[in-house]
Amino acid sequence: MGCWGRNRGRLLCMLLLTFMFMVLEVVVSRVTASLAMLSDSFHMLSDVLALVVALVAERFARRTHATQKNTFGWIRAEVRLLPSRAMLTFMASDSEEEVCDERTSLMSAESPSPRSCLEAQQGEDGESAAQWRSQESEEDFEDDPDRYICSGVPGRPPGLEEELTLKYGAKHVIMLFVPVTLCMIVVVATIKSVRFYTEKNGQLIYTPFTEDTASVGQRLLNSVLNTLIMITVIVVMTIFLVVLYKHRCYKFIHGWLIMSSLMLLFLFTYIYLGEVLKTYSVAMDYPTLLLTVWNFGAVGMVCIHWKGPLLLQQAYLIMISALMALVFIKYLPEWSAWVILGAISVYDLVAVLCPKGPLRMLVETAQERNEPIFPALIYSSAMVWTVGMAKLDPSSQGALQLPYDPEMEEDSYDSFGEPSYPDVFEPPLPGYPGEELEEEEERGVKLGLGDFIFYSVLVGKAAAAGNGDWNTTLACFVAILIGLCLTLLLLAVFRKALPALPISITFGLIFYFSADNLVRPFMDTLASHQLYI
Amino acid sequence: MTAAVFFGCAFIAFGPALALYVFTIATEPLRIIFLIAGAFFWLVSLLISSLFWFLARLITDNKDGPMQKYLLIFGVLLSIFIQEMFRFAYYRLLKKASEGLKSINPDETAPSMRLLAYVSGLGFGIMSGVFSFVNTLSNSLGPGTVGIHGDSPQFFLNSAFMTLVVILLHVFWGIVFFDACEKKKWYVLLIVLLTHLLVSAQVPADGAPRRSGLAKAQTSSADITLPDSKPLLCQVSRKEGTRCTFSPESACPYSSR
Question: Which Pfam family, any one, appears in the UniProt record (chain A) (predicted)?
Fold first, then answer.
């Protein structure tokens, strides 16, 4: 480790020199009243900060021994601090001397890691090592070479399996309740406050028949026709996606997904922001707006399509689902929206459970090839591996193993060509008895974004119903949560991917219509008489 | 009415329930699920009782007058019976579920029946309170004057306290009910039912139900019916181009917006 001593000396020298120059420049600038000198001195200050960060990183990296918590020791801390250093250096636009090349330190960390991982699971079957290797080869598809996944799905005693199921069951239900609730809250809050989304300003081309007809029968017919067209579009797009996937046109699919996320994150956010600002009469100039939307969109693209903190990724997925749901609420005509909701849950049921359903085929293909299915379209409650994390994370491997599970399915598109997957998965159990608590908690369940969208559409339409009545909205909300709970229960029982829409949407529809027509007059009458039941 | 009224009444009505939720239920996922299931059961019971009330109204052809009052009383009685029936049904479901949990997790302690009673009572209570009070609360954010026709100006406060009472009572009823079911003391169920009926029979002192009329506000595209609190306050719709029409017209100090 002589490298460290030498480099530390170099860093210290550099720091001292830069600091001295900075002080000198400040003094001279005050003496000669030169603004240019002062600005240059601040420039040197940023260099000083960058060097301080490098020193700190180097100090961390000295502690290279693997511990229980950090299996790679703190070597990766250097990598972690690299972005901040790079930023500071970039700001100063200097060239920074790369002391003790990151790559060399990474390289040295690389080779011990797989071995240490494997050694840690010496007692497990050899098959786990093989699995890990096959996973590693899949990493290319994921396009992130920094993923160090130490696998190991050891055999576990059979009695534990059911216990783990139920123990994970309740927690995962809540892990899904929270984002679904958040999405609905965003949609309902927007609907109730921003008038734009309840105004009728035209229809989508996918629902060409108008509902402004004279008779009820005609209106019903039009809405059924609209539904047929919409569902046909969705089916065609799903089949198209499956065909593309089967022929390995990954680039096309990814390009498509990126285009749709771009549209959602930039265009729809811009419109949404504009309407919200209009509602609250807040003035915002174009440069600020541009900066805000650009930052929001760029970070969103990075988080969703590449890597990012899990919480941020989840937040972005919730936001794009809410935006999509708002668009649907605005542009789908009244009756068509309800019929579409019903029809899409039927379609979801068929597509996910029938042997020849497009989604089933998609998932089976993904499984045969041992590939993960488009992570940008699924909300995952599990932790995923992020760069620089030194902690062993079998759960991410659990999440990656998701597509390897025999029957995983996904479904349906929304009309904007973004495939969204309204169904639920449960990853296989990587737990073993001696596991630490935090690793157990990180196994998660996944829900397709289409589910979020359609749940929010239902609740949003209940909120938009125009009576100022909150009871219907709340009834639909509870109904959807219970449906989701039941779906997850079925998931835990059947242990295969299930469509998440049918039960919740059925409950939601029943509760909407009965609450709107039966409960509302009853509660209103009770309230007017100040009776409490 | 002011934001102070809104927040004050909201916290009076839902504060204790929220505190109970945050400190006892939010920590355990299983309890949250049981809470929501309890709320769902209450909701279903309300749905069924409204269905019966609606059918009864249809059968009597929506005649105005004392018939409506009797129908309402019938509706309330029926609703309470059905609520207690659903409480019993939830008890049976929880019993089965807790046996199932015990068989699957022998070493981990399943939640006790008393805890489940508390959770289910809270679920019932929260849903009941929310359904009774949330519309009134949302009205309190809008413009208007309370008690303009000589009714009590403390309408919101009274409602808030009543809601609080109902929520807490549901918790207590849940615990007593489940305990009675466990110990097979069926007369206690009757006591719970009677006390529930007693509480619901508490109409305000001036006896007669609030008089007629739903304030109708017309928009360009649809009729909006505001929840009926006309004699207590005068509502003005916030939507553009709407008029708040009352009978008599002169009674409303806000004519149009």
Answer: Cation_efflux
Which one of B27, B33, B70 makes the best mutation probe of the A interface by having the most chain A beta carbons within 10 Å?
A: B33
Separation CA B254–CA B257 (nearest Å): 8
The residue length of chain A stands at: 533
* Active site positions of A, annotated: 348, 451
Residue A69: which pLDDT band, with cuts at 50, 70 and 90?
A: low
CB contact at 8 A, A122 and A105: no
**Cross-chain CB nearest to B46 (options A177, A485, A519):** A519
Predicted pLDDT of residue A85: 53
B202 touches chain A (CB under 8 A): yes
Q: What are A153's two structure tokens?
A: 């799905």
Q: Mutate which of B25, B30, B240 to disrupt the A interface (most A C-beta within 10 Å)?
A: B30
The answer to whether position A455 is within a domain reads yes
Each residue's pLDDT tens digit, A420-459: 445 555 444 443 443 334 444 456 788 889 999 999 999 9
Average pLDDT (B134-144) is 88
Contacting residues of B for A516, CB less than 8 Å apart:
none
Answer whether B235 touches A (CB < 8 Å).
no
The pLDDT tens digits of the residues spanning A96-105 come to 443 444 444 3
- A470 lies within 8 A of chain B by CB: yes
B131 chain-A contacts, CB cut-off 8 A: 471, 474, 523
| CB half-sphere exposure, B66, CA atoms < 13 A | 0
User: How does pLDDT run across B173-199, given as a tens digit for each residue?
Assistant: 999 999 999 999 999 999 999 999 999
Nearest to A525 among B29, B72, B226 (CB): B72
Q: C-alpha distances in angstroms, B174 versus B38, B42, B185?
A: 10, 12, 14
pTM score: 0.69
Question: Which ranges in A247-384 belong to alpha helices (H)?
Answer: 250-262, 269-279, 286-305, 310-331, 334-353, 358-368
Of A174, A468, A521, the CB nearest to B224: A468
Q: How many domains does one find in chain A?
A: 1
In this predicted complex, what is the ipTM?
0.82
Contacts of A524 in chain B (CB under 8 A): 135, 214, 227-228
Residue A518 forms part of a structural domain: yes
What is the nearest CA distance from B199 to chain A, expressed in angstroms?
8
**Per-residue pLDDT tens for A152-205?**
334 444 444 454 555 457 888 899 999 999 999 999 999 999 989 988 888 888
| Tens of pLDDT, residues A96-132 | 443 444 444 334 333 433 333 333 334 334 343 333 3
pLDDT score at B173: 96
CA distance A238 to B190: 57
Instruction: Give me A503's structure tokens.
Output: 């039960």
When computed from its CA atoms, the radius of gyration of chain A, rounded to whole angstroms, is 28
Q: Is A76 part of any domain?
A: no
Confirm whether A490 is domain-assigned: yes
What span, in angstroms and rounded, lies between the C-alpha atoms of A11 and B48?
76
Angle between helices A310-331 and A286-305 (to 10 degrees): 110
| Domain range enclosing A355 | 168-381+444-529
The pair phi, psi for residue A273, each rounded to 5°, is -60, -45
Which of B220, B130, B228, B114 lies closest to B172 in space, CA to CA?
B114
